[in-house]
From TrEMBL:
Name of the protein described by the UniProt record: Transmembrane channel-like protein
Positions of the TMC domain: 540-646
Primary gene name: TMC6
Topology with respect to the bilayer: Multi-pass membrane protein
Membrane-spanning intervals of the chain: 205-224, 245-270, 341-361, 431-455, 470-494, 506-529, 549-571, 592-612, 650-673, 722-740
Organismal lineage: Eukaryota, Metazoa, Chordata, Craniata, Vertebrata
Residues covered by region (Disordered): 1-29, 779-805
Keyword Secreted: no
Primary site of residence: membrane
Length: 805
């Protein structure tokens, strides 16, 4: 039997390479050189000897099929093609290629013979068989390779050496050992010829400082993540109840951030300066009785809580509010802090900043929720790629298990909904029931709005009720009861609808509750700006509107607590003790989310009349979070029909932006431009409208001197000119539209890329099958040619034997 051929590479060395070691400083050149070695090795492998031919016959056998077969049954040529595919080099970074280049260089210089092909393991991957990665068993060779690698690492800078080590496909222990050797054996810096050597202490000190700063940054990042509000609580809620319930608490957290930003601006530019320069009180201060916490009146009236306490004077000079209501005269040559202008500008700027933040949050949430075009393969990704192996604590691992389990339930429920279509008769029946229920729900919302209007008119016409402080809570109580009872009625009517998708059920409930809230709030706004302004002539109607909004906010929180107590806790106790059921109530996402939007709308409506109302909303949101979290974990169960809330945050922010924020902005713009302020209180007491504060300030600036002459021009062309407002509005709408179009384009591109990846996979199978069939045809031709040659040689051999005989 013939000896198998040695598998040797012939790579000529240039004269410039003699006497110096290869350097991996230019990675691209090294990569190209090693690619050339791979190509030469493949050409040599195509011309190998008898052993390869024998393996080819064993691999191919008598198979004539051209279909795709497992890797273990492919021919050697097919295996060679598979080894050169890009998918077989996944994870092979340039550091690994450089280490292989070192191995080749050392072996070529030593002119040592390569191992025979028969020494390779049969089950080795083609990439390892062809590339010969770390297959030399000689310990001396391993040491030489390591010393050469250490020598090359020493010639690099610290950053380049760390980057190279990170890219090598080695274990952490080996990387750590190489880093220590390359750092301790480096000795001195390599300088220019003739320059003296410098001790490596500076380099080691620099390296230690970099490591210390890196560790400090990681520690600070971990600390910031640990200080994230409600981090563990949100993980627990998401793991036990799913993303649908978690979206409610994330939305509550977003509202808390909006109110904190709004309160910061109002306190910094309105409440803070007024507290620093308090106005003179004209009468005795009422005594607090404790009822003010519910009504907002009494001793709270003459505080910075409400509009009437703020003066119309300049705040950088000692000047109290005159009894005749006139303004203080500022000192000549100065630019005073004009309180009316500051009040109006701060409210406008705070609304503008809130609008920008809200639009950005909505666009960002839209991009995150609609970024992926399809969910094919998401089940496998969730099963095999969701676990975080860095989690070591028992509590964290339990939370992660719950989260993955709930995620799988949601994905499977969504997949089942797509697999069960409804018939035509069922669709028509569902449409009829849906239309009837919608008519009943719209009638309920209209009836609630009429009831609020009638009761508010009754409260205006009854002077006995107006004189009692406790009677001020009647209208907020009636409105709160309507807001509490009407959603339950809509929920009972919704039980008649055969919704297949729980997501659609939640969206429909949100729309119905939103119509109810908008009808009630629209009626109340008409009541405040039309009837109350006319009835309270000569009084501070702004304070009354601010107190009314405070009462609505407090009453909404009280009724929410009662609903949580009786609607969830008492029902759970009755269900478990009396009815002997283990079934707990589910968390009503639609009703709770609309309560948050309703409370936030009240806050935005009251910013002009009560600058500290966002502080009350912040306290309310904090209490609501802990109350709802405790009730959820103790009294509620996970949804019986899990569903994936991938777009819920975007829907919530959209409802918060357009119906809620836009309606509050229209209400305040009407109050600023059209309604006459009170003549006895507030910073606009001497003006016909609040908007005239800007014009008065401009007239003062025109006489202040040439240094501020540009400010009247800014006010005239940027504030009074409506073109600027329309331009800003158009820009915001353009940003929203462009963001939506960009996200849609990304979704289309993602779908096309996924389709292209699928087609490329099919192309690989097709090409491999074609190459395999071509090679088998050549093999058959070669066999037939060899057989013909043997048949021709056999008769001549017989004739020769006969002649010899």
């Amino acid at each position: 039997m013939a000896q198998p051929l040695a598998f040797i590479l012939d790579v000529p060395e240039t004269p410039g390479d003699q006497g110096q070691d290869p350097s991996p400083y230019d990675e691209s050149e090294v990569h190209d050189s090693f690619q050339q070695l791979i190509q030469e090795q493949s050409r040599c492998a195509a011309q190998e000897g008898l052993e390869l031919q024998q393996r080819e016959r064993e691999a191919t056998g008598s198979g004539q099929q051209t279909l795709w077969r497992p890797e273990g049954t492919q021919s050697t040529a097919t295996l060679r093609i598979l080894a050169s595919m890009p998918s077989r080099t996944i994870g092979r970074s340039r550091g690994a290629i450089i280490s292989q280049y070192y191995n080749r260089t050392v072996q070529l210089r030593r002119r040592s013979s390569r191992p025979l092909l028969g020494n390779f393991v049969r089950s080795a991957r083609p990439s390892l068989r062809l590339y010969d990665l770390e297959l030399d068993p000689m310990a001396r060779e391993e040491e030489e390779k390591q010393s050469l690698l250490v020598k090359e690492l020493q010639s690099l800078a610290v950053a380049q050496r760390d980057h190279m080590l990170r890219g090598m496909p080695l274990s952490l222990a080996e990387k750590r050992s190489l880093r220590e050797k390359s750092r301790t054996l480096r000795g001195k810096w390599r300088g220019q010829p003739g320059s003296g050597g410098v001790c490596s202490c500076c380099g080691q000190l620099r390296y230690a400082c970099v490591l210390a700063l890196h560790s400090l940054g990681l520690a600070l990042l971990s600390a910031l993540q640990a200080l994230t509000p409600w981090r563990y609580a949100l993980k627990r809620i998401g793991g036990q109840f799913g993303s649908s319930v978690l979206s409610y608490f994330l939305f509550l957290k977003t509202l808390l951030a909006f109110n904190a930003l709004l309160l910061l601006l109002l306190v910094a530019f309105i409440t803070g300066p007024q507290v620093a320069f308090p106005p003179a009180l004209l009468g005795p201060v009422p005594v607090c009785t404790g009822l003010e916490l519910l009504t907002g009146a009494g001793c709270f009236t003459h505080t910075v809580m409400y509009y009437g306490h703020y003066s119309n004077a300049t705040l950088n000079q000692p000047c109290g509010s005159p009894l005749d209501g006139s303004q203080c005269t500022p000192r000549a040559g100065g630019l005073p802090y004009n309180m009316p202008l500051a009040y109006l500008s701060t409210v406008g700027v705070s609304f503008f900043v809130t609008c920008i933040t809200l639009v950005y949050s909505m666009a960002h949430s839209f991009g995150e929720s609609y970024r992926v075009g399809s969910t094919s393969g998401i089940h496998a990704i969730t099963v095999f790629c969701s676990w975080d192996y860095k989690v070591t604590q028992k509590r964290a691992s339990r939370l992660q298990q719950d989260n993955i389990r709930t995620r799988l339930k949601e994905l499977l429920a969504e997949w089942q909904l797509r697999q069960s279509p409804r018939s035509v008769c069922g669709t028509l029946r569902q449409a009829a029931v849906l239309g009837l229920v919608w008519l009943l729900c719209l009638g309920t919302a209209l009836g609630c709005a009429v009831a609020v209007h009638v009761f508010s008119e009754f409260m205006i016409q009854s002077p006995e009720a107006a004189g009692q402080e406790a009677a001020l809570l009647v209208l907020p109580l009636v409105v709160g009861l309507l807001n509490l009872g009407a959603p339950y009625l809509c929920r009972v009517l919704a039980a008649l609808e055969p919704h297949d998708s729980p997501v659609l059920e939640v969206y429909v409930a949100i729309c119905r509750n939103l119509i109810l809230k908008l009808a009630i709030l629209g009626t109340l706004c008409y009541h405040w700006l039309d009837h109350r302004v006319g009835v309270l002539q000569g009084q501070c109607w702004e304070d009354f509107v601010g107190q009314e909004l405070y009462r609505f906010l407090v009453m909404d929180f009280v009724l929410m607590l009662l609903d949580t107590l009786f609607g969830e806790l008492v029902w759970r106790i009755i269900s478990e003790k009396k009815l002997k059921r283990r079934r707990k109530p589910e968390f009503d996402i639609a009703r709770n989310v609309l309560e948050l939007i309703y409370g936030q709308t009240l806050t935005w409506l009251g910013v002009l009349f009560s600058p500290l109302l966002p502080a009350v909303q912040i306290i309310k949101l904090l209490l609501v979070f802990y109350v709802k979290k405790t009730s959820l974990l103790a009294n509620c169960q996970a949804p019986r029909r899990p569903w994936l809330a991938s777009h819920m945050s975007t829907i919530f922010l959209t409802l918060l932006c357009f119906p809620a924020f836009l309606g509050a902005a229209v209400f305040l713009c009407y109050a600023v431009w059209q309604v006459k302020p009170s003549s006895t209180c507030g910073p606009f007491r001497t003006l016909d409208t609040m908007y005239e504060a800007g014009r008065v300030w401009v007239r003062h600036l025109e006489t202040a001197g040439p240094r501020v002459s540009w400010l009247p021009w800014v006010h005239r062309y940027l504030v009074e000119n409506t073109f600027f407002v329309f331009l800003v509005s158009a820009l915001l709408l353009a940003v929203i539209y462009l963001n939506i179009q960009v996200v849609r384009g990304q979704r289309k591109v993602i779908c096309l890329l996924k389709e292209q990846i699928s087609n490329e996979g099919e192309d690989k199978i097709f090409l491999i099958n074609k190459l395999h069939s071509i090679y088998e045809r050549k093999e058959r031709e070669e066999r037939s040619r060899v057989g013909t040659t043997e048949e021709a040689v056999a008769p001549s051999a017989l004739l020769t034997d006969e002649q010899d005989a």
